[in-house]
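User: Fold both of these, please.

Assistant: Here is the first one.
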Amino acid sequence: MKTRITSVLLLLFLIFPASRTAADHHNEEDRPSDHSELSPAFHLGLIGEYNDWDLHLNFSGEYREESPDFYEFQSVLYYRVIPNIKAGVFYSLHKGERHDDDWIWDGEDWVWYDSTKRYEHLVGADLSPRFLLPFLPGRNWLVYGRTRYSYNFYNGDQKLLFRPELSYFHLKNRSPRWNINGAYALYFPLNFGETLIYEHGPYGNINFFLRQNLLLGLTGEYRIRYWSSSSEFRETGSEYSATEKRFSLGASLIWKIDISGKKR
């Protein structure tokens, strides 16, 4: 009898961990798959200008197919240190963002954690130099170089963004009528992930000046993101990598208010 009880206990010991061990076989279904998608997007912006200070309030969103829709509210305070350089601090509130460690075992399968209702707080600082390029045709060319550090209070993730940008302004009677921008963003993970670059890709938009201080824009962005193994998956003794390619098309509306009335 004692031998039979011992055998049953041993069998139960082997069966119960099997639910988790089954995931350790690591079929292709156990890993996030590479995928591409098209995402509609929008951006609303309010810019208040006072002497050498700028306050940017932004609300943006992106409608996604294979992950939760993403929304962001951001406020940035800039100070013009010298005529060609702005330094700023910012706060962002994110909803629906997905991270590497959101790939989890739910008891039956490996799945993405549902971050639909998750809010995250981020802070950071950036430095944005800009220079005129009068030697180019049309003369109304500007080059920007944004470098931004961000810290996420939800998971402690730290990133460094480097984003060079080139802009052309079309003027008529010394007033801007439209402008076109091209940029390339590079996100470097400082304390997470397994790749040198976490996300990168080109961005472009064209803005039409409905009024001197009201801009209506069309935007396009192509982003490549590299997913690294979640901490829960690494506990099983294996790793994975996956690539997400996202092309977003959207519209923007930006309103500028110059409180000081100073020509900048």
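And the second sequence with its predicted structure:
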Amino acid sequence: MAKQLIGALVVVVALLLAYIFLTEGEPAKRPGFTWNLPEITNFDRIEIVRGEETLVVDRGSGGWRIQQPLAFAADEDQMEQVAGLFADQETRLVVDGEEPADSTNLSRFGLDTEPLIQVRLFDSGQPVVRFGLGSTEQTQSGASRTWIRPEGADRIYRVNRNLPTVLDKNLSEWRNTDILVLTQEQQDALTAVNIQYGTGRIRLEKQGQQWQMVEPVDAQTDANLISRYINQVDTLRATDFADEVDAAQAGLDPPMYVLTLELGEQERFELRFGGEFTRSPSQEEGGESVPVTPEQRRYVQLNDGPIYQVTERTVDQFLWTTGDFRPRDVISLERDQVVRIVTVDRDGTRMELVRNDPPEEGGESSWRMVEPEAIDPVDAAEMRRLLTNVADVDATRFAEGVTVEQAGLHSPRRQITMTLADGAEHVIAIGSPTQPTTESGSARNMDHYVQVDGGEIFELRAYKVNNLVKSPEEFRPDQATE
């Protein structure tokens, strides 16, 4: 009996092994569906065809690259999403529905459109599947599903992803927008930065662990600002590509600004910026801001490579002049040093605020309004906010080359005269916004040109300006807002 049992077990094991051997490598199918995407172990190429337009992206030793319709580095994040759909065992597509490929279903699920997007996938250089991309629908739970039709199939299938959001993109979305991205090793190897703009020249050098400005030699600098600049120029990304623009059209021949990063003696990156980079002060007519034409686009080129388009924010991040490295404290006082504030607006409106008798030690002074109406005391929180902003004024950046007229300081929006306990006075003049205003724009959201005691013109952040241009009504205790 025992021998018979052992013999039966041997037969069962043999049959099981035979089954495993015969079915090994067969793609897994979801129960109830006649087809599923084949497993891809080495996803290295994708082709997407829409009529006469073809996109080809493949992976080589240097990473993913677009081969058609132009040769260009592919966006790594985009290709990660694509690989996740087809090659990642945890996230790859799964079929969760199917229908006959009759005319009704082809029309219903967007698989009869012309031209139909066709997707072809490769594994180790060999094509493994081609399918047409149909429409996307939402399930009752809100999940997105997409219908596809494998080449030559008489049935269509629904997969558990929104494929068009990943695959149906324009060419620029497949391209790598990284212009410059230094690795940590390259950042550590950075030894010098050269800046050239017009006749101006700046050279920053790393001496030991500290960065210093060595040219121009007599420039006032803030070590923290130099470090901040170095830390923000290691990454530059484009917003668009300028394939149809040549160097002359982009303002790169010659460039308006050149930034060169030196990594020892062996490697250097030269960023050439084109276009008009000086900020355009708003034009003033009769005290009103008049819209001006939009500023031209900003372009950049790395080491004679492709020309890219970048945002103005990016430009501001990289294009520093000598004044941007200077200490930015313009006024730095204690609030209790201020005893009187008089403001005069462009329309002649005048406001006078006077501090009441000094408080007892550890207390806070109260203030009263003398003009244009008597208020005693004024709102403490609003007064505290004003004192903070008149006693501590720091420039966002110095406005080199901007005249008093361009800055709107010949007829300031508001002039603030601050009197100190020792009788000294400081005058803060607030001019025009640093950017042109439009009919839909608001000066409240814009930085402004400012001048203190007739000195250098600088730019001041919008929120600080707003705290300096409060109306008399806002100092009433029942009207002030936080």
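Residues 17-29, 277-295 have pLDDT under 50 and may be disordered.
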